[in-house]
Amino acid sequence: MEARDREGWGTRSGFILAAIGSAVGLGNMWRFPYVTAENGGAAFVFFYILMVLLVGVPVMLAEFTIGRRTRLSPIGAMLKAGGRAWMPLGYLFVATGFLILSYYSVIAGWTMRYTLEAALGGFSTTPAEYFSAASEGTSAVIYHLAFMGITIAVVAGGIKMGIERASLVLMPLLFLLVMGLAIWAIFLPGAEAGYSFYLRPNPQRLFSLETLGAAAGQAFFSLSLGMGAMLTYASYLSKQEDLPSAGVTIAGSDFLVAFLAGMVVFPVIFALGLSDEIGESTIGALFISLPRAFTAMGDGGRIIGLIFFSALFVGALTSGISLLEVVVSSLIDTWQLPRATAALGAGLVITLIGVPSAYSTNVLAIFDQVAGNLFLVFGAFALTIFVGWRMDYPVTELQQGFRSEGLLRGWHFTLKFFVPIILAVVLYQVGKDTTLVLYQVVKDILALVF
Ligand code: TRP
C-alpha cells in the first residue's frame, strides 16, 4: 500500500488516547496488583517506577521512531528500516501478538462474565469454586469468543472510525471509574494496613534479580512494549507529532491507572482480612478475593464490584484491540488484504489458539510466561540494539515535532548502552524463569505418559 493512502489518526488526542488504551488494561488492574503482592509490595512499586522511566519510556520512543519513520506495520517496517536481516524481528512481533491476544482474551472473557454477574445476580458466595468453574471449560470458551467478536468488530472498523472512536469514549470512562473507586477506598475501615503494605518499602526486600526481572517484565507488558504495538500505532501518525511528550504522557497515564488500581485492591483486601490470600497470589487471586470482599460489603459492595469489573473489561478491550491491530495491519501492508477480511481471519485463528487457555489456567500461565514475558523482553532487547546501533538517524526522526536535540541525544545514548545492559540481565533472569516453567511442564507430561 502506498504511504499516501494509508489510514491515519483523526486527531492528536486520538492517537494518545488509543495508545493509552493499548497500555492500560488487564496489565494495570489485574497483573500489577498481583505481581506487586508476589514481590513483597512497596519495594516492588519503587523498582517498577524506575523501570518505567529508565527503560520503558526509551523503548517506547524506539518503537515510535521506527513506526513513524517507515509508516509501516512491524514486518514491513523492520524490512524497510533494517533490511532483510531485521525482518524476522517483525515476524516475531506478529507471532507474539497472536500468542498474547489468544490468552489475554480468555482473561478478558472472565471480566465480562464477572461484570454480568455483578449486574444481574450479585457475586457468588463461594468465589473460589465459582472461579474454577468460570475460568476453565465451555463457559470460558464462550466468553472468550464473545470478547474476540467485539475486538474484531472494532478493528474491522479501522483506525479513525473503529479504534480512535472507541478509545475516545472508553478511556475517559475508565479513568473516572478507577479514580472513583480509589477515593471510595480511602474511607474503608481498616484500609491502612493495605496502604502500608503497598506504599511503605520494606528495606530487606529492596533489591534482588527476581524483583528486577519481574518489574521489567511488568513494565513491558503494561506499556505494550516489545512486540510492535506502539510501533504500529505510531505508523499512523503525521510528522508533526511530538513523540517524546506523547511517550511521557502515555507512560504516566499507564502508571497512574496501575497505581490507582493498587489503591483500590490493597485497601479492600486488607480491610477484609484477606491478605493471606493475596500473599500466595496466582492468576486467579483477584478474581477470588475481590468478589469475596465485595460480597462481604453487602449491596454497596456489589455496585463497587460492578464498577471495578466494568473498568477492567473496558481496559481489556482497548488493549485487545491494539494486539489485534498489530497482526491486522501486517496482513494489510504485507499481503494487501482488505481490513475486514484481515481482522476476521486473524481474529478467528487467534480465537482458536486461545481455546486451550480457556480450558486450563495452567496452559494460560505458560503462554503468559513465554509470550507475555520472555518474547516481550527479547523483542525489546532486539529493538533497542537496532535503534541504538543499526538504524539510520533515529534522532533526526524524533526531532520532527520536538526541539531539544540534547535530550534526544541522551535518549539515543541510553539506548546504546544503558538499556541493553539492563535488558541483558533481565533476559537472563526471565530466560531462567521460563526454562523452569517449561521444564516443569515437560516433567508433568512425562509423568502423565509413563
Ligand atoms: N498493555 C496491555 C495491558 O496492560 C496489554 C497489551 C496490549 C500488550 N498490547 C500489548 C502487552 C502489546 C504487550 C504488547 O493490559
Q: What is the topology?
A:
Layout: H1 12-23, H2 26-38, H3 42-70, H4 74-82, H5 87-120, H6 127-135, H7 138-156, H8 159-186, H9 192-199, H10 209-222, H11 229-234, H12 243-271, H13 275-279, H14 285-296, H15 298-335, H16 339-359, H17 361-390, H18 394-399, H19 405-449
Helix pairs in contact: 1-8, 1-12, 1-15, 2-10, 2-12, 3-4, 3-10, 3-12, 3-17, 3-19, 4-5, 5-7, 5-15, 5-16, 5-17, 6-14, 7-8, 7-15, 7-16, 8-12, 8-15, 9-12, 10-17, 10-19, 14-15, 15-16, 16-17, 17-19
The structure holds tryptophan.
The site of tryptophan (TRP) has 16 residues, from helix 1, helix 2, helix 10 and helix 15.
Question: Can you offer a commentary on this structure?
Answer:
The protein has 450 residues and is mainly α. It has a single domain (12-449), classed as Up-down Bundle (Sodium/glucose cotransporter), CATH 1.20.1730. The protein is built from 19 helices and no strands. The chain has helices spanning 12-23, 26-38, 42-70, 74-82, 87-120, 127-135, 138-156, 159-186, 192-199, 209-222, 229-234, 243-271, 275-279, 285-296, 298-335, 339-359, 361-390, 394-399, 405-449. Helix 4 runs antiparallel to helix 5. The model has no long low-confidence stretch (mean pLDDT 91). It binds tryptophan. The site of tryptophan has 16 residues, from helix 1, helix 2, helix 10 and helix 15.
